[in-house]
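Continuing from the previous page of notes. For each protein in this section, the sequence appears first, followed by its structure tokens. Read the first protein now.
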Amino acid sequence: MKLALMTIAAIALIGTIVPSVLYLAGTLSKDTMQWLMLVATIVWFAAVPFCGRSAKPAEARQPADAD
């Protein structure tokens, strides 16, 4: 599941860059570029939080015994 989310996040990140390049090349209209970048940005922000570390926060860790 984590691999799938990381893949989706990577594709979405690419989807924020490629439309601007295609617009500069004259292949896309400005409206199409903006919509593609908006959708890719939303997908990226939705996927990235679930790709993070799975380690517990420092407050939740149990302190080591100091024997």
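Done with the first. The second protein uses the same format. Note its length before scrolling.
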Amino acid sequence: MKVVIDRNAFLKAVQVAQRGTNSSASLAVLSHVLLAADGGTMTISGTNLDMGIVTRAQAVVEKPGKIAIPAKLLASALGTLPAGNLTLESGKYPNLSITNEITRFNIKGLDASEFPEQAIFDETTALMISCKTLHGMIKRTAFASAKDESRPSLTGTFVEIQEDHISFATADGFRLAIAEGEMVGKAPAPLTALIATKAMQEIALIGGADSNLFGVLIDSKAGIAIFSTTDTDIICRLVDSRFPDYRQILPKTSTTEIVVTLADINRVVSQAAVMARIGTQNAVVFNFTEGEDDGKPGSLVVKALSDADGDTKAELMTDSHTGKPLTIAFNADYILQGLQAMSGEQVTIKMGTAKGPVLITPAGDATLRYIVMPVSLPEVEVKKKTKTVPEAAPVAEIEQPAQLETAVVPSMEVAVVS
């Protein structure tokens, strides 16, 4: 192989492909990137067997060839070189020389035949989605996915495509995020896939301008999904598990509904979370009171208490309030992350009881739904602390949030609230 390539373009491509490698894997080649030169293109690939990244850069290929090179070492070496053209050469032995006018690196690699074969993106059967839509949907859902690898069905993003409509759903047992968007063109048949959320987050880092398009290819038989842009493909192995039927736990009715300014509620919940996080339960308490007439503005008081360090309280006016007054408590991080995923000027919060699921959406926007379970707030009288005798704050007695669990019944999974 002999190639002349721009250093900046080559380094950028190597760094992208490197994110697909696994430096701690027992299989040495998984810490390498595969360099394949042919035509006018240098293709750089990395994989950890669950996810692969293939990216391309323009090059002058004087002699085609392939070689696998340690990803971290290659990126570090390129990082020390100045901008300009580099000459890459490899011969009979799996070594790669990298030279410019004054410097030469000689890096030992592996034979290209040892590198796992990657699936090839077929654009003729792919569906299309805008980069802006795809990135936005990932950002609005990835945070709610479970981190516990022992629960594989909840570590993935459930992707569902019907005609020109696409939806993502994630859950961790205590909250659920659902985002919807539009495809460019229609799918010939309904498609579903459970894709590791870690892979989806990598996809969110790639794509460039909002106007760019992603190609989406889901092959259930092969167990893979491929997301492709002009110069990069991400190949994801589908999660071999079933996502729970989340539609069965979506709140059907509500007894209390408020609309509040998003910036205001984000601010007061962020303030309360500072105190909540140093408490034993990491909980914030919402107290909704109605206005003089149904539908008129009421108020929302947000409180948090730490066992020994103090408390915080903030009040804001709601833009509208329908239904009964209600006191309800949430895990501070769960409620804050959900609010931070919202867009627009206002959010709508719908509640039934202090122990039931709560639905949060951008006001007037049905493309994002966030459902979160409250924590149980015991019916205790809040007593004022004395200066001489520290008294445990009632928030210390708050129970953990109810969990959205899955129960297996014949031929289907049903999400239930315990």
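What the second structure shows: The chain has six helices and 28 strands. The chain has three domains: 2-114, 123-243, 248-405. We return to this in next week's lecture.
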